Amino acid sequence: MTDFSDDDLKLDPNFATRFERDDERPPCQLYLISPPRIGADFAEQLKQALEGGPVAAFQLRLKDVDEEEIARAAGPLQRLCAEREVAFIVNDSMELAKRLGADGVHLGQGDGDPRAARALLGPSAQIGVTCHDSRHLAMEAGEAGADYVAFGAFYPTTTKETAHRPDPSILSWWTALFELPCVAIGGITAHNAAPLVAAGADFLAVSGAVWGHESGPCAGVGAFAGVLGW
Ligand SMILES: Cc1ncc(COP(=O)(O)OP(=O)(O)O)c(N)n1
Ligand SMILES: Cc1nc(C(=O)O)sc1CCOP(=O)(O)O
Ligand SMILES: [Mg+2]
């Protein structure tokens, strides 16, 4: 692919200010991300979260946890998701996604090639790719067969150290040009999500605002009702 810089790709200066959601696209949906570490009661917390409102996908994102432990934790969570038709996505490892029979995998820039994931997981797997604040990375991911591209971190977050801070206009730019869904991630709460929805995010990926909600994860999901129009 031709190597454009992201500045080359900002062809229309109006993209910087055009925050009008394309009515042809499906409504923005919620994509839950697990906390980086979970306790024995997490299946109950996930159950409560899924009672709070419609959730399209759940990503098991455990950090500094041994793969066998992740596999043991996954079973009950995967069953809860299957019962509610919530896509169960594994973070980081296409091999673990294969082993668990997950619905898909989320790959960061250092987590492997989406083409290899497709070959391993098959045509129906949902493969997502982190694209930070880069139009170029997003187009590369699309060409490599990703099912969604993820931009972030839109807001400060304590869930993870982040080095990129895209402007919401990247979502408008993406949705004006491509049908492939885009995910917004990073520090998203029910209170700051509106500009991302207006800019065209197909999914809001959220962790801390749900698991850390003062009234629990059911209320944490429910808080998004207004901004997501449930
Ligand atoms: C939906 C979604 N978007 C981005 C990420 C971040 O992935 P990555 O860059 O690999 O960082 P880690 O999550 O592995 O710390 C994600 N997990 N999910
Ligand atoms: C996992 C992750 N990836 C990010 C990125 O920018 O790629 S930000 C992030 C953390 C998401 O959790 P919270 O909703 O608590 O901020
Ligand atoms: Mg990763």
Automatic annotation (TrEMBL):
Its cofactor is Mg(2+). It comes from the Bacteria. Mg(2+) binds at residues 92, 111. One of its GO terms (biological process) is thiamine biosynthetic process. GO terms for molecular function: magnesium ion binding; thiamine-phosphate diphosphorylase activity. 4-amino-2-methyl-5-(diphosphooxymethyl)pyrimidine binds at residues 59-63, 91, 130, 160. The keyword Metal-binding applies. Keywords: Magnesium, Metal-binding, Thiamine biosynthesis, Transferase. Binds 1 Mg(2+) ion per subunit. Pathway: Cofactor biosynthesis; thiamine diphosphate biosynthesis; thiamine phosphate from 4-amino-2-methyl-5-diphosphomethylpyrimidine and 4-methyl-5-(2-phosphoethyl)-thiazole: step 1/1. Its EC number is 2.5.1.3. Residues 30-210 form the Thiamine phosphate synthase/TenI domain. Belongs to the thiamine-phosphate synthase family. PANTHER family: THIAMINE-PHOSPHATE PYROPHOSPHORYLASE, THIAMINE-PHOSPHATE SYNTHASE. Condenses 4-methyl-5-(beta-hydroxyethyl)thiazole monophosphate (THZ-P) and 2-methyl-4-amino-5-hydroxymethyl pyrimidine pyrophosphate (HMP-PP) to form thiamine monophosphate (TMP). This is Thiamine-phosphate synthase. The gene is thiE.
